[in-house]
């Protein structure tokens, strides 16, 4: 398991890429990031335990491998080598800076199963539509946030919706 808090482990990514960590001390959020964070804070604090649990454990902490954790018999769950991580392959991040990724992998399957079980087994039928609607709203806010970050980095959507660099 991780020996340090997750926020510290997360900072290993930029540290390993040679970034100045002081850049992360006084971050000014883009408008879409503020809106996304505002939605999450409001929904988590005021929409009930079920919405909060679904947003935090499934939406925010979810992974592309959730189906394999929940349905291992149907989906072959093969974790790629840390040497195949995109930050290692494309940005030369030393593997030792993937401490957060390593920590998540150690507990991932049990955490994913517990998260899905909490929602599927304990959200009442009356509340399911509210939970799903909240997840859809979170996705809309996240997509707007992601697109604004991409635009700030000079990435625009080209023909067919594919990303392309706008300024390079």
Overview in brief:
The chain has 168 residues and is mostly helical. 60% of the residues lie in helices and 4% in strands.
Topology:
Layout: H1 6-10, H2 12-16, H3 31-46, H4 49-60, H5 66-70, H6 86-91, H7 99-122, H8 125-152, E1 155-157, E2 163-165
Antiparallel strand pairs: 1-2
Helix pairs in contact: 3-4, 3-8, 4-7, 4-8
Written overview of the protein:
The protein has 168 residues and is mainly alpha-helical. It has one domain. The protein has eight helices and two strands. It has helices spanning 6-10, 12-16, 31-46, 49-60, 66-70, 86-91, 99-122, 125-152, and strands at 155-157, 163-165. A two-stranded antiparallel ribbon has the order 1-2. A hairpin with a 5-residue loop joins strand 1 (155-157) and strand 2 (163-165). Helix 3 runs antiparallel to helix 8 (125-152) and helix 4 (49-60) packs antiparallel against helix 7. The longest helix has 28 residues, at 125-152. It is globular. The chain starts with 5 loop residues before the first helix and ends with a strand. The model has no long low-confidence stretch (mean pLDDT 85).
Q: What is the rounded Rg?
A: 18 Å
Report the biggest beta sheet as strand number plus sense, adding barrel if it closes.
Answer: 2 strands, antiparallel
The domain tally reads 1
Query: What's the overall geometry?
Result: globular
| Percent of residues in β-strands | under 5%
> What is the topology, as strand order, of the major beta sheet?
1-2
**Quantity of strands, as a count:** 2
Uncertain residue ranges: none
Count of alpha/pi helices = 8
Secondary-structure element pattern, one letter each: HHHHHHHHEE
State the distance separating the first and last CA atoms: 42 Å
What is the share of helical residues?
55-70%
Mean pLDDT: 85
Structural class: mainly alpha
